[in-house]
Design goal:
The complex is a heterodimer of chains A (327) and B (210). By secondary structure, chain A is α+β, with helices and mostly antiparallel strands. Among the domains of chain A are: 57-112 and 161-216, Uridine Diphospho-n-acetylenolpyruvylglucosamine Reductase, domain 3 (2-Layer Sandwich), CATH 3.30.465; 224-324, Enolase-like, domain 1, CATH 3.30.390.50. Chain A has helices at residues 12-20, 32-37, 73-78, 80-85, 87-94, 99-104, 107-112, 118-121, 163-169, 188-191, 272-278, 285-292, 307-324; strands at residues 5-8, 24-26, 45-48, 57-59, 65-68, 173-177, 183-187, 210-216, 224-230, 241-250, 253-262, 269-270. Chain A has a five-stranded antiparallel sheet. In chain A, strands 9-10-11-12 form a four-stranded antiparallel sheet, sandwiched between helices. The model of chain A has no long low-confidence stretch (mean pLDDT 97). Chain B is elongated and about 55 Å long. Chain B is α+β, with helices and mostly antiparallel strands. In chain B, 44% of the residues are buried. Chain B has a domain at 64-207: Beta-grasp domain (Ubiquitin-like (UB roll), Roll). The chains are: A alpha+beta (327), B alpha+beta (210). Chain A binds chain B through residues 1-6, 8, 26, 29-30, 33-34, 36-39, 42, 46, 48, 50, 97-101, 103-104, 122-124, 234-236, and chain B through 12-13, 15-19, 24, 56-57, 59, 75-77, 79, 98-100, 103, 106, 112-115, 118-120, 122-123, 166, 169-170, 173, 175, 183-190. The complex binds flavin-adenine dinucleotide (FAD) and FE2/S2 (inorganic) cluster (2 copies). Residues 95-98, 100-105, 115, 117 of chain B line the site of one FE2/S2 (inorganic) cluster. One FE2/S2 (inorganic) cluster (FES) binds at residues 95-98, 100-105, 115, 117 of chain B. Chain A: This is FAD-binding PCMH-type domain-containing protein. Chain A: InterPro entries: CO_DH_flav_C (IPR005107), CO_DH_flav_C_dom_sf (IPR036683), Diverse_Substr_Oxidored (IPR051312), FAD-bd_PCMH (IPR016166), FAD-bd_PCMH-like_sf (IPR036318), FAD-bd_PCMH_sub1 (IPR016167), FAD-bd_PCMH_sub2 (IPR016169), Mopterin_DH_FAD-bd (IPR002346). Chain A: Pfam families: CO_deh_flav_C, FAD_binding_5.
């Protein structure tokens, strides 16, 4: 680990000042400390933001939900408002990492976490995300866990977050404070960036910007939702595939469908074609199968991850059935 | 009074070409129970072949470990796990992966189970830490320690302190409703010897006060 100076801030103003001078925010530290130890990350200054007052979970005026950036994963998952209004979020969180890590890690850090690609983590390997221009060892390497959607010739790493898949499905907004103190919000679809030719650019925020909250917009009620995660072992493992599904069914007809997949994309993958297939239809076994058949549209599998194409469709189909019922 | 701090025999895991092989933790002084007990050792970078002559940035932290207050100067890079093991001589917490992936280093910070390998010590000013060494009440073992013995819930024992600390957290959090629930909420602790069935039984027994 490279030496770094450390400062703890108690107001967002102090944080932004330190961020503007090049300081790196640390929240739970579960991504950052790990990557610093691997020397993938080499910040000169850590700015401890854990004391900032960004730990609330509030229902917004119109019936959405605002989760503070420093709410711990464990707290968000256990929160009764989250559990009752958006079970897909609490399920995605509880299927993430371990109880210990969820006690440490925050919602803001979670959506900022970096890929688990082994070549990214290995500073002796070629990786455009870590060292722009050095190449991508995963393209011709062991790429079983890598992405099949949203990839480029420069990077095929997945975004590892589960909660981000739920946020993508629910079309959340990320609230950030700029170093000038001005607030703005970014739609989740624009927040995480596909690699293209600049895989080192991962989020649509600028250096020093501070995430203050993730806001889930209003969705029509009743909304049934849930998260399914498929992995190499039962627990404490990242997704091979996953599906976040939220459905609003009224009068026996699906009026709103929000579906996204994890473990398969360079960013959480919104399944718009699946959503469109569901809208206006009556739930049925045949519908789940037909809609899920569109889940891997546009997929470009690599040598070792062809299995993800079928696995993704089956994951989405199963989760549609679990959430929408079988009839 | 001055105490010699032990020279570490463990080097932090390093990766060429960006890292040096020197230990990541350098503690300089310790104050325990309010009185200065140590003063002396500073493992200087030069002694270990580091190019830079400057002392690495460090910070002063006051934290309570198993009821004892310590004030220490730590190199900012020092993890709680290294502080416990290398500096405070509390070697019950184990280093398995040093990356949050095994749970052997689990301790309680302010009553919550966390991975001490991913916790920077410099962030813990004012914190209360409980390790496996602080669980028993004198000669009376904690109910979960006794349950691990009764159920024979270990083989080599390397994961055990982490399992027990995690189990204490799990019971406190109330995730012991069924064997299945215990398995899921204890999944952050890997046991290479595969003692899972008995570990689940031990947590279950302790939770139900058997
Ligand atoms: C063994 C292991 C298994 C895991 N398994 C899973 C899993 O299955 N699913 C999953 O989703 N995740 C998993 N994780 C990842 C874990 O969820 C993340 O490490 C965690 O959510 C990051 O949050 P943090 O608060 O610790 O972030 P930190 O490490 O503190 O920060 C991460 C990054 O975010 C930046 N940042 C943090 N907060 C802010 C803010 N408010 N504004 C701007 N920037 C900010 C930091 O500067 C840093 O770059 C796993 C991690 C480990 C170590
Ligand atoms: S040593 Fe901390 S989790 Fe493995
Ligand atoms: S008892 Fe050997 S690792 Fe668990």
């Amino acid at each position: 680990m490279h030496p770094f100076s450390y400062t703890k801030v108690s107001t967002t103003r102090e944080a932004l000042n330190a961020g503007r001078s090049g300081g790196r925010y640390i929240a739970g530290g579960t991504t950052l400390v790990d990557l610093m130890r691997e020397t993938v990350e080499r910040p000169d200054t850590l700015v401890d933001i854990s004391g900032l007052p960004l730990r609330g979970i509030t229902v917004t005026g119109r019936g959405g939900l605002r989760i503070g950036a420093l709410v711990r994963m464990a707290e968000a998952a256990a929160d009764s408002k989250v559990r009752t209004t958006f079970p897909v979020i609490s399920q995605a969180l509880e299927l993430s990492a371990s109880a210990q890590l969820r006690n440490m890690a925050t919602i803001g850090g979670n959506i900022m976490q970096r890929t688990r690609c082994a070549y990214f983590r290995d500073v002796t390997a070629a990786c455009n995300k870590r060292e722009p221009g050095s190449g991508c060892a995963a393209l011709k390497g062991v790429n079983r866990t890598h992405a099949i959607l949203g990839t480029s010739g420069d990077c095929v790493a997945t975004h590892p977050s589960d909660a981000a898949v739920a946020f993508a499905a629910l079309e959340a907004r990320v609230h950030v404070l700029g170093s000038d103190g001005r607030e703005r919000s970014i739609g989740f679809a624009d927040f995480l960036l596909r690699p293209g030719s600049t895989p080192h650019r991962e989020q649509a925020i600028h250096r020093g910007e501070l995430i203050t909250a993730v806001e889930i917009p209003v969705h029509p009620r009743p909304l049934v939702s849930g998260y399914l995660k498929v992995r190499d072992r039962q627990s404490y493992e990242f997704a091979l595939t996953s599906a976040a599904v939220a459905l609003h069914v009224r009068g026996g007809v699906i009026r709103e469908a929000r579906v996204a997949a994890g473990g398969v994309g360079t960013v959480p993958w919104k399944l718009s074609a699946v959503e469109r297939h569901l809208i206006g239809e009556r739930p049925s076994e045949a519908l789940w199968t037909a809609a899920a058949a569109r889940a891997a549209d546009g997929a470009r599998p690599l040598e070792h991850n062809r299995f993800k194409v079928d696995l993704l469709k089956r994951t989405v189909e199963r989760q549609l059935r679990i959430v929408g019922g079988s009839r | 009074m001055s105490t010699e701090l032990p020279e570490s025999t463990v080097s932090p895991p390093t990766r060429a070409p960006f890292t040096t092989s020197r230990r990541t933790f350098i503690a300089t002084t310790t104050l325990a129970g309010g009185a200065v007990v140590a003063g002396g050792l500073f493992v200087g970078p030069n002694a270990l072949g580091d190019e830079s002559a400057a002392e690495p940035p460090s910070g002063r932290v006051s934290l309570t470990v198993n009821g004892v207050r310590h004030t220490v100067m730590v190199d900012n890079r020092t993890s709680l796990l290294d502080l416990l093991r290398e500096h405070l001589d509390l070697t019950g917490s184990k280093k398995g992966c040093n990356a949050g992936a095994c749970g052997a280093c689990t301790v309680l910070v302010d009553g919550q189970r966390v991975n001490s390998c991913l916790t920077l010590a410099v962030r813990l000013d004012g914190a209360e830490v409980t390790t496996i060494e602080g669980l028993a009440d004198g000669e009376d073992l904690h109910a979960l320690q006794q349950a691990f013995i009764d159920q024979d819930a270990f083989q080599c024992g390397f994961c055990t302190s982490g399992q027990i600390m995690s189990g204490v957290g799990c019971i406190k959090e109330g995730h012991t409703g069924s064997a299945e629930e215990i398995r899921e909420w204890m999944s952050g602790n890997i046991c290479r010897c595969g003692c899972y069935t008995k570990i689940v039984r031990a947590v279950d027994h302790a939770a139900r006060g058997k």
